[in-house]
């Protein structure tokens, strides 16, 4: 990650060395002598064409015949022409073919010849000013005067396009959190376990390690990212910018899946979120009004809904409502954010059809409609991962039907490939 930077002082600007390229340079006069080379090529071409014309004319005027050896009708007798003069052997290629190849070679020579001549060692080349080199080679290095202007202040993800996808089991990535947001995912997931008064992250107990904590893998890195995205300067002193430069208003959903007892574990989650809370980077609800922040925390798994809604005036964490059971419920955007369910359990198998049937499509539409009526974001987990063409078809249908967050394990497949194109496997 680039070092923290600030705006340079006006007094420091005078210390920045001027660019070594002061004015354009031109080749020496001797180089222009090479411009006569194309005319020599054309002269050689005309000479070759003239020679071909004379040879063809001579052959046409000569009344000769080629012998036909061992003709079955003549026995072993070879028939010769009137003057018994052997006809010259015909070249293996026609004149038109040779002519075309020669013209192509000459045109190629005209195009790359001057470039090769100017750039191979020992030949004439563009003269450069003494000591001239790439002006950006040492950009940002100490002593160059560019240390404080080398990096765009909020450039962590300046060229990443946010994508409505959720990094399922994000802690499995080689680099948790960073791999997901670098791919453009706007949601990440952490499975947490309460162990010895700390929150460890892992899919099961065999994967738990004392250094892989909720703070180390998610909370603290997010604080550092957002501090860079929200610098305190004379021009900016706010906390509204999220992790994506291309869309700073886009929130990042942090889904916390509680694996241990919810009543005991959830208070620890709220406690460890304090570094984000105190800096004003959490989405929250106050007096019934929703305020979106750079990070939106959602509790799922064993998260107790009664603790989510315990504070009726303020809350900065939301619930993951059951997508297939929200009809006639009290879930809405003030207490929940996602509405999720297992695709396999609620929609069914699609492997044999290569995509949802009409009945399955009707269920999807009903789920999405119910979620949107309550201001919730529809999400399915446990999507078919294989065959690839079935997975891609399901992704395409879900996006077409208005599902808000695509639950994915294959980040590259979801954010870089064109999964609307059919694939065999």
TrEMBL record:
GO terms for molecular function: phosphoric diester hydrolase activity. GO terms for biological process: lipid metabolic process. SUPFAM superfamilies: PLC-like phosphodiesterases. Residues 1-24 are annotated as: Disordered. Belongs to the AIM6 family. This is Altered inheritance of mitochondria protein 6.
